[in-house]
Structure formats: structure tokens, C-alpha cells
Amino acid sequence: MKKITVEICTGTTCHVMGSEAIMEIRNMLSERYKESVEIKATSCLGFCRERQAGEAPFVKVNGRIVPEASLLKVTQMIDEIERGN
Amino acid sequence: MEKLRLEDQGRVITALCDGLGSGIKAHILSTLTSTIATHFAASESNLRRYIEIISQILPECSERNLGYSTFTISDIDSSGRNKLIEFDNPSAILIRNGKTERIQRRKVSVKYGKLGSREVYQSVIEMQKGDRLAICSDGVTESGRGEKGMQWGWEEENLAKFCERICRENKELSARQMAKGIVEAAIKNEGGQCRDDATALVINIRRPKKTLLVTGPPSHKKFDAYITDRVKNFIGAKIICGGTTAKIIADMLGRALHTNPAALGRGLPPASEIEGVDLVTEGILTLSKLEEMLDAGSSGKTENTPAEALMELLLESDIITLIVGTKINQTHHNPDFPIDVEIRRNLARRLKRVLENKYLKKVEIELV
Does ipTM come in above 0.90? Predict the structure, then answer.
């Protein structure tokens, strides 16, 4: 099965707006997701400069941009993708 | 310890002082002595006269009727000629080609307050490339006193052997690393906690080490190639601070930019990697933290943050070039941001000031 990729932006804006807390997702994913989800940190994705992209912090889940990301939002998205699979 | 760089004369003067006793009074005595001593040395006043003045200025201990601070002054010029003055500190140790070299000292008697006559040792050392000169307080040589096999403590002879060994083992050993090694060994002699202040000052004669730090995207895209070329062709340590800057340079070099999520920096964004670059970190937050750490003089702690890795690289350097991109990041003009997210160039100026004044580095800033 193809892994779900979660890319967490660690640029200045996203970091200040809370991306470090989202990184905690590594320790909070349930056992069944640990194998199927790949967590990556990235340097600035640059979305904060595009007004239409929304507000920081940004996370990309399987290439989809998640603005104003939070642990809950990202976890829900992983759940949705898993169910879709 | 006091350091003074006389740029126009090519001289660097350092004074290691140890105040009588411990605590606040000892600290005041040693700070007072080191400040006076370096400035007297800078003015090339008569040795006898300035030691007499120091003895008259220092407050006295009411119990022992004396109040002094030991000192060693090193006054080195750009040719490597080092005028050394030693007063009651352990003898300085000169390591040349991995061995202790004898220093020819001249004994001078000086009047010293109520203590009457005291002996001061003067010497002139023609220092050579690769030489290391270690100056320590008695907290180092007397460390471990009374411990098994060390009735009188570590002693100068064993300290010299230790210095010889670590210099032989690591030919690239920097002055900082050696000073740190000496103090750590002294602490170890004491079983982990010194009973007396242990200070070490090391002078290392070598070619200056250069570092290039690039931070912030340039004001115009046309300068992207310029900063990339500077990084590519620079001989020395290369540092990039800033995600966008790192991305520009990585793309132009055609190299991958990796960020390691496991390397989270305890409140700072994690460091990244680009092949051929020594360190890649986030920009403003990491540099602000660096400035705070440099200002506080903190070192030795190993929290393993990107700011510490950055500090380590800069403190091992002598000539630092800061290339500061001046493109304004609109996203930083956000009311939700903390107050210390400032314009990069002001931060660069503050870094220059602290690195030059406190650590005697040569720093140049280039705005692009």
C-alpha cells in the first residue's frame, strides 16, 4: 500500500505559528498508522507568501496543502485518506 | 579574564586573573585586576609602576591583611612576539611540536602594598606557527589535592604532560577546545566539582579560519547566482541560515535539501542539510537565539540545538563574512509574531558587535 506522506513546514512563519507542535504527530499516531504514514519535515514551503493559500502553519498531506494546520486537522485528514483507501 | 584587541597596532592583550578567595569578592578583585592590567599593558607603562598601582587599588582582606589577585598578562603582536608577565599564577606552558618548550623568564622584584616585595616573571616568547601557550589559574594545578596519588594536586608538571598529550593527539586542536579540555580535566580531578575557580586561557598560533554565513534571500532575483557562487567557491566553513535562502542555493547548485524531523531544535526549527554546506538552519529565530547565547557567554552546554551548532562553528572561526539578503519577508509583518522577529540586517549588526567585542572575531557584513 502506498504510504501517506505528511510534510510539515518548519520555516520561520510556520514554526512560530505552531508547526513544532504538529511534529508531535510522530508520537501520537496509533500503531496501525505508524507503518502507513511517513512524516517529513521540510524547510520553508513558501505558502505563507501566497495569500490565497491561507494562514500558517502549513502541512502537506499527500501533496494537499493544509493551512492553519493543527494536530487534530492533520490526524483527521490522515483518517479520511485511510478510509478512502 | 579580559581581552583587548588593538587593531591599529596589531596587538592582542589578554589577562587571566584569579582573585583571592571565592565568590563575589574574588570576582570583583579579578575583574578589576584584569581590566586595569590589560589597559596598563596596552599603554606600555612601566611594569613596576603599574603593579604598585594595582596593589594599592585592590581592597584588602581584613583577616589576612592582604588583598590581591594573581595575574598573567599576554601581549602578543602580529609577528608572534609575545610579552608575558606572570604574577603568582602557575607558570604558562608553551607547547611546540607536541612538546613542552622551556620559557626563559626574568625575575623582577616589585613593591606590592603591605605584602612588601613580590616577584614577577617577565618573558618574551617568539611564538611560531603551531605553538600553543596555556595559562591557568591555581584552581587547575591544585585540582585533586589530597586525592589518591595527588598529594599536592595535579601540579604544573602533570598539566604540561596533559597539554603535550592532547596537542599530539589532535594536531588541529583549537585554543578553545584545549582550554575546555584543561578545565574539564581539572573538574574530573576534583571528582566532578571544583573546590576552587579553575580558569584556562590558551593562545594558538595558526592561519585564521574563515567562515561564510549567508542569511536571507537577496533583494533581487538576479543576485541569487551571486550568493550561490560565493557559497560554492568559498574556502572555509559554509553556513546558510534561512529556509528560503537554503532553497535558492540548493536549487541553483542542483543539490537536494533535506530536513531531519528527528533533529528538532528545542524551540527552534530543525537544521537541514545540503551537500557541501557545513550547516543549514532556519534564519531569524536561530540567529536571534545565537545572539542571545553569544551575549550571555554561554558555552559548554550540549542541548544539541541548531543555534549551538552555529555558535560552535562561529567560535572556531576568526574571520566571519555575513552575507545578508535584504528582501523583506512580508509574512514577518504579522501582529501574531513575537517581538524578536526582527529585520535581518539589524540582527546581523548586533551579531557583528558581540562577535567582535566579546570574542575578538573579525566580522564583515555584505548586504545583497
Answer: no
